[in-house]
Design goal:
The chain is of the alpha/beta class and 259 residues long. It has ten helices and seven strands. 43% of the residues lie in helices and 11% in strands. Strands 3-2-1-6-4-7-5 form a seven-stranded parallel β-sheet. It is globular.
């Protein structure tokens, strides 16, 4: 972490970037707005000095970037994940404007939560399964004549709104995260819960993985909208374990957390 970081614990996550120059430009946009924690998911060409050159005075952000293989690894410790989405989805997700996104991030930051801001591939954005791991989606409005934003521009807009929300004070009209009695569950714990839930639904015959009918997607949306805390995850998994124990021998039981 550098001294320029106004938001420790708020990560900008770039997924499978294809051009190193875009990494540098995004890093510059971040540092302009006081964010310096950059995570790269499976970048096509990195490390590369083109990223450092394009970053200008934000070369330290590029050099300090964490490189991981999967989105799951990038967001594992995050209690709030917001993904950028440029198009409407078959199943709508809770959607924020850039300003609302900034307010959510600052609320979470002031509540000492770790936050992931997820940006997709230059050519096709985030996949549906990646977006389903987010509590919220954010869409950046554009003019109708030309709606395409490059990666660094999108990062600049969102980071700008985060900084403006900090300067303006917390205007999030929802529940105050600082007043919640327990920390929200991080992404890794929630993903284990979803694995456990799906296995249990299959065990009791309620879910057919060969004909899923969007069941798990809708259940993800339900629980993401609520934002479950650590105790609630433990309660839900305990309930599922009790159901598992009623199953017949040889039927699937609860998934085990990876070491």
């Amino acid at each position: 972490m550098t001294s320029a970081n106004l938001f420790p614990g708020v990560k900008v996550i770039l997924v499978e970037t294809s051009h190193p120059g875009n990494i540098g430009a995004a890093a510059r946009a971040m540092k302009n707005m006081g964010l310096t924690e950059l995570v790269l998911v499976n970048p096509l060409d990195f490390p590369n000095m083109k990223a450092v050159f394009r970053a200008a005075s934000a070369g330290d952000v590029v050099r300090g970037a964490q490189v991981v293989e999967t989105v799951e690894e990038a967001i594992a410790d995050c209690q709030l994940v917001i993904g950028t989405s440029a198009r409407e989805r078959r199943i709508p997700w809770p959607l924020l404007s850039p300003r609302e996104c900034g307010e959510k991030v600052v609320t979470a930051f002031e509540g000492e939560q770790k936050v992931g801001l997820l940006f997709g591939r230059e050519s096709r954005g985030l996949k549906n399964e990646e977006l389903q791991q987010c509590q919220f989606h954010v869409n950046i409005p554009t003019g109708e004549a030309y709606s395409s934003l490059n990666l660094a521009m999108a990062v600049q807009v969102i980071c700008y709104e985060v900084l403006q929300a900090k300067h303006a004070g917390n205007n999030d009209s929802g529940r105050s995260d600082q007043e919640w009695d327990l920390p929200f569950a991080d992404s890794a714990a929630v993903e284990y819960f979803y694995d456990h839930l799906e296995a249990t639904l299959i065990q009791v015959g309620f879910h057919d993985p060969e004909n899923p009918r969007q069941l798990m997607t809708r259940l993800r949306r339900l629980f993401n909208r609520v934002r479950i805390d650590r105790m609630e995850v433990n309660i839900l998994r305990g309930f599922l374990t009790a159901i598992n124990r009623l199953g017949k021998p040889g039927e699937p039981h609860e998934p085990q957390e990876k070491g």
